[in-house]
Each structure stands twice: as C-alpha cells, then as structure tokens.
Amino acid sequence: MKILHRVISWLKYQKNASSKYYLHSPFVYNFYLNVLECADDDNLQKIGQARKQLRQQKIAVEKIEFDKDVVTVSTTGYLEQQVAVGHKYGKLLYALSKHCQPVTIVELGTSLGISTAYLAAGNPSAKIYSADGNPHTTAIAKQLQSDLTLQNIELYNGLFDELLPQLLGMIKTPCLVYIDGNHSYEATLRYFKAFLPNMCQKSILIFDDIYWSNEMTAAWKEIKQHEHISLTIDVYQFGICFFNTGKLAKEDFVLRY
Questions:
Q1: Are 99 and 175 in contact (CB under 8 A)?
Q2: Digit-coded pLDDT (tens) for 3-52
Q3: Helix H segments across the chain?
Q4: Burial 210-227 (b: 16+ CB within 10 A, else e)
Q5: 98: Cβ–Cβ under 8 A, 6 or more apart, which residues?
Q6: Is 45 within a domain?
Q7: 3-state secondary structure 36-80
Q8: pTM of the entire structure?
Q9: 43 φ, ψ to 5°?
C-alpha cells in the first residue's frame, strides 16, 4: 500500500508542480533561483566524494527500528544508498542552509551524518544539533564529520521524545529544523507541536518523506493548515514550512524539482 501511495502521489506531484516561470510570489521565486537551482560547488563535491567512499564500504552496522523494536544488520554501503538522503535533496538542504544562513539548526535523524554534513557545509557559522537513537550510525557520522573537517556539529544519542526537551532548553529558538525520524502520523505531529512554541518569524521547518505513507501525507496536510504556518513549499520528498507571518501570505506551493 505504501508503494502504491507513493506512485499516486508522485503522479499528482508531476501534474501540479510549477516551474519558476509560473511563480508570482517574489519570495518563492527567489527561493527557486537560490535553492532549487543551486549549482554544484567544491563543498558539494567533497561530500559527494565522502559518500562514494561510504558506498564502497561493506562494514556491518546494526540498524535499529525503534517503532517496531527490531534490530537488523546492514552495511554502510547499503545505508548510504538506500537510507541516507540522496544527493539531489541533500543539495537542497545545503542550498537552503547557505541561502537562509540559519544561526542554529536542529536535525532529528542523523543516521550516517550525510544530511548533517550538507546542512553544516551550507553555513559553517551555524551550530548544528543532530540527534539519533542509533549509536552505531552516530559513530560513523562522527567519522564523516572529521573527514570533512566540519567543526559546527554536535551529535546526540537517544530517543527523540527524551532528547527534545533538552535540546529545546539549550537552543530556545531554532532557526532551521529538519525532521527525518519516525514517519508515523502521531510522531510527526508530536515533533511539530514540540517545536512550535520555540519557532520565530524567521524559522524554517522541513519534513522529510511527506509522501512516504498515507499517515505521513495526512500529517503534512494537517501541518500545512496550522494557523502559525505562513507559507509551505512541497518538492515531493520535502515539505518546507515558513513562519514569517509578518511578510508572507498564507499559501501552499508545489514546485518542480
């Protein structure tokens, strides 16, 4: 059922997605030019090389599925190809971090640290707080961070619901939040509500895999309608929320990417 949902959602996305030539919002047009059309550069090439090295590794890694209470054994190569964010959307994270220059970034779902690297490289002056429940993948993320000489990342291990109060207590007002964790309806809304009181007018909230399942899509639709969300951008894999209520009209955009 999940696969069918993703196929149908992809076809709808292809039908409804707009290019920059049909955008009348200056804010969204600027987003399209600076984020979606971001060109590759030296930083992205370095991450690409690091990914290639991970892809070639056959090191066994325990993969923990907390929602199912299951532990399986995988390899770094498999996780890089099948679990980590793809380069296309990693590039989007990099470009968004580079364009918006958030002071603090919170990530739920470190995994191998690949998405963390894109966010950190996009804005080296930002402070990245990334959390994951799996200590085995976090160890790999720390090594990747060292290999790429990224100095602005702090990694945390633990369940999201237990770590969030600690993180929000330290950060107070995160400027960019990237949520790639438990893809259930309840958990997605719970994380959203946990961050909501701490968001400001310049905050950005990104949800990964919004068409992963009926549950995730239902959660995304509910989040879009929330009164504190000013503008949303759907690029199929990511749902991006902006809180700039003082300047942005409440609109939903589906952009071709």
A1: no
A2: 999 999 999 999 999 999 999 999 999 999 999 999 999 999 999 999 99
A3: 2-16, 26-31, 42-55, 76-82, 87-100, 114-122, 135-147, 160-171, 185-195, 214-224
A4: bbbbebbbebbeebbeee
A5: 38, 122, 123
A6: yes
A7: HCCCCCHHHHHHHHHHHHHHCCCCEEEEEECCCCEEEEEEHHHHH
A8: 0.95
A9: -60, -45
| 8 Å CB contact between 120 and 88 | no
- Please indicate, yes or no, if residue 41 is contained in any of the structural domains: yes
Q: Is residue 70 part of a domain?
A: no
Q: How many domains does the chain have?
A: 1
Distance from chain centroid for Cα 172: 20
Dump pLDDT digits (tens) for 243-252. Answer: 976 678 899 9
- Cα separation, 114 vs 130, whole angstroms: 11
Residue the block writes with tokens 């720390």 = 142
178 touches 89 (CB < 8 A): no
Question: Would 103 be classed as within a structural domain?
Answer: yes
**Distance (Å) of CA 208 to CA 53, 77, 84, 136:** 25, 21, 11, 22
> Tell me, what CATH number does 175's domain have?
3.40.50.150
Phi-psi region of 12 (alpha: psi -120 to 50; beta: other; left: phi over 0): alpha
